[in-house]
Amino acid sequence: MPGRRLLRRHRRLRRARRQLHPQLQEDQLRRASGRFDGNVSRANDTLGQNLPPPFADLATLTKMFADKGLDQTDVVVLSGAHTVGISHCPSFSDRVHPPTSPSPNMDPTLAAKLNQTCDTPNNATTTVSQDYETPNALDNQYYKNILSGKVLFTSDAALNSSETLELVKNTPGQTIGTQPSEQPW
């Protein structure tokens, strides 16, 4: 049943949120966690190899996740982590500073604000919140931002495609007016 599977994935994402973002925790329970599969972590092993680049299209995202045994539902659910955190301007400069004008699938108000904040495409010192609506909350605002064109990365905007649109729309708590405390995950 797709709904139950999606709900389980959201529960896993919530647990990961508690472990990775202590400042967002609702409870401060101590529990054993962490990686037990190795003791080496290298930046070279992440972007492009294990983490999709921010400019990836849906086909690239789907392939990278499939290579790890995951499907498009996993792409949508795990991309929800972009509701917290910051990004450096070059990560989304292809959407804000393209050769002619801002990306047509980006909200024009957001594009103008980002264009002003990130005055040059290679401005690597300036950062912006990945979710400017609720930057310090792990909530479903990210999915609402996808639907309204208010996401930074090409990889996030790619989720507003016919292949993944129903998954984005049916994310738990996506009903208009639902408060984070009412979400089932």
Automatic annotation (TrEMBL):
UniProt: Ca(2+) binding residues: T83, D131, T134, D139
Disulfide-linked positions: C89-C118
Cofactor note: Binds 2 calcium ions per subunit.
Keywords, comma-separated and alphabetical: Calcium, Disulfide bond, Glycoprotein, Heme, Hydrogen peroxide, Iron, Metal-binding, Oxidoreductase, Peroxidase
Gene Ontology biological process terms, A to Z: hydrogen peroxide catabolic process; response to oxidative stress
Ranges where the record places region Disordered: 17-51
Top class in the EC scheme: oxidoreductase
Signal sequence region: none
Catalytic activity: 2 a phenolic donor + H2O2 = 2 a phenolic radical donor + 2 H2O
Cofactors that this protein relies on: Ca(2+); heme b
EC number: 1.11.1.7
Domain Plant heme peroxidase family profile, chain residue ranges per copy: 22-169
Family: Belongs to the peroxidase family. Ascorbate peroxidase subfamily.
Record-given protein name: peroxidase
Protein's organism: Lolium multiflorum (Italian ryegrass)
